[in-house]
Amino acid sequence: MTIRDKVQDFLQSQEDRELFREHEVKEFLRGFGINTPRGMFVPSGTAIPSPVSLSYPLVAKVVSSGISSKSDVGGVRLGIGNGDELRSAVTELSLVENGEGVLVEEMARPGFEVIVGGTSDITFGPIVMFGLGGFFVELFRDVSFALAPVTHEQAVWLVDETKGGKVLKGFRGKPPLDIDAIADIIVTVSEVMATGLIRTIDLNPVALYLSGALVLDAKMSRL
């Protein structure tokens, strides 16, 4: 199955939805071999499965295609350590306005946060971007762009184009992080954007480690 076929199948499964929910996007990404935290989606009005087949500590996040920032609406609970705390968190998050459910995931170990994204530009067409993740992308604007699709070599170049790329390669005696892992994600995002079927992809943050990478938050919209 080609990448375009996979994207078309996903879009057909979402009916007329323009903005996709986080757990849907992550399932889509896993189909390309991109790692995301183990988790489960608890739709509004349904009970939490018992026992929970996830390892504590957990994180719980409100899910809604109509909420652009979960943090702004108090829609995130971190460090959930047991079943009672989980039930309390899910109950609280179920009360968030416009919420459609709660995504419960295993908390990821700390990593260096980067961002990978894509957009369909009215002038240049599909574009892929890389930069420092989390609030750093807003604070430093340390990002680089390329026309999609890109090769693995071009994706590594995209990383090198940022100041943060120097940190990833090992800075002041620190070991280098897995640039190949983040380059693979950049390539996949660029290939998805190149289908011309997707308007935006926003993977922020992506935790990068000495070995491997993990997409912690994901947004995507159709063209």
C-alpha geometry: globular
CATH fold-type name of the largest domain? D-amino Acid Aminotransferase, Chain A, domain 1
Secondary-structure class: alpha+beta
Number of domains: 2
Order of helices and strands: HEHEEEHEEEHEHHHEEE
Tally of helical runs: 7
- Average pLDDT level: 92
CATH superfamily of the largest domain: ATP-grasp fold, B domain
Rounded radius of gyration (Å): 18 Å
Counting DSSP E segments of at least 2 residues, the number of strands comes to 11
Helix content: 25-40%
- CATH-defined architecture of the largest domain: 2-Layer Sandwich
Are there runs of 5+ residues with pLDDT below 50, and where?
Answer: none
- CATH class descriptor of the largest domain: Alpha Beta
Beta-strand residue percentage:
25-35%
Largest sheet: 7 strands, antiparallel
| End-to-end gap | 21 Å
Description:
- The protein has helices spanning 3-13, 22-30, 83-93, 136-140, 152-160, 164-168, 179-193; strands at 19-20, 39-43, 58-63, 76-80, 101-106, 112-121, 125-132, 143-147, 198-208, 213-215, 218-222.
- The two termini are 21 Å apart.
- 29% of the residues lie in helices and 30% in strands.
- It is built from 7 helices and 11 strands.
- The longest helix is centred in the C-terminal third of the chain and has 15 residues, at 179-193.
- Strands 1, 6, 7, 8, 9, 10 and 11 form a 7-stranded antiparallel beta sheet that branches. Strands 2-5-3-4 form a 4-stranded antiparallel beta sheet, covered by helices on one side.
